[in-house]
Amino acid sequence: VPAPATATESAATSQKQVRSLTFGIVPQQSASKLARLWIPIMEQLSQEAGVQLVFQTARDIPEFEKNCRDGKYDIAYMNPFHYTQFHEAPGYIAVGKQKGKKIQGILVARKDLETDEQLKALHGQTLAFPAPDAFAATKLPAKDLENKKIEFSRKYVSSHDSVYRSVAQGLYIAGGGIVRTFKNVDKVVSDQLHIIHRTAKYTPHAFAVHPSVDEETRNRLAAALMGLGNSEVGLQLLESIKFAGIESAVNEDWKDVR
Questions:
Q1: Distance CA 187, CA 222 (A)
Q2: Strands of 152-156's sheet in order across
Q3: Contacts (Cβ under 8 Å, ≥6 apart) of 251
Q4: CA dist., res. 208 & res. 247, Å (int)
Q5: Please, what is the angle between helix 215-227 and helix 31-49, to 10°?
Q6: What pLDDT digit, counting tens, does each position of 86-96 carry?
Q7: Are the C-beta atoms of residues 208 and 95 closer than 8 Å to each other?
Q8: Preceding omega of 2 cis (within 30 degrees of 0)
Q9: Which residues of the chain are under the pLDDT cut of 70?
């Protein structure tokens, strides 16, 4: 008769039975900052959903795009434009989005750029953007400038925080971002900057699950995401990423982006 399992062995067996899923976060900020903000959230979600969520990101937004296209993340937090692409292939399914918010692109400049015609001051200049397919931080403000016949060159600096820091350092006259990450950048950086342009608003980033994840697990993940707003701990975690909450979402919510 085999000896009864010890508490340690039972715990190890239980650990093995908990499914491990990768959770990819779009690299709007540095990997170290994203890990600091998102790992506590994933730990809370893991407890609620009964799965082990493993934080992942990428070196930059283009690499993140490739990882999504290759289906490397079981669940991912991706920008609206990416979602419209990666819902088609490999088939990511939206389960949630930031509660009560639309995404809005911005252009920031140093506070000493105080001319009456701030956007015209950008004509002929090189502006900082995070990546070519960053929806609200690149595509929307760039399109607005083009519509105003303002000619400019683009320098891609890999993340939103890199945009804000490079503009604050005077490396570029202005750069693109979004309101949420601007509010979340180090105060020593944001205090040197101000918003000189805001774009139209669109459906925000998607929390989307890879089609290989079974429906029951997908539903538990969705419930855990929504449930963050129902506890004091969850609300504190949401506040750290400047969310008021997460609400349910369906594919049709992104028709404005399409």
A1: 33
A2: 152-156, 125-129, 174-178, 103-110, 193-202
A3: 87, 93, 94
A4: 13
A5: 110
A6: 999 999 999 99
A7: yes
A8: no
A9: 1-18, 114-116
Which phi and psi angles does 172 have, rounded to 5°? -135, 150
| Residue 1 parent element (H or E) | none
> Identity (one letter) of the amino acid at 228?
L
Contact 172, 231 (CB under 8 A): no
DSSP 8-35: HHHHHHHHHHSPEEEEEE--SS-HHHHH
Residues in the chain, total: 258
Q: Which residue has the tokens 């949401």?
A: 238
pTM of the full predicted structure?
0.82
Token pair 């419930």 is at which residue? 223
Give the SS3 label for residue 231.
coil
Phi, psi of 109 (to 5 degrees): -145, 165
Q: Name the maximum alpha-carbon separation found in the chain.
A: 86
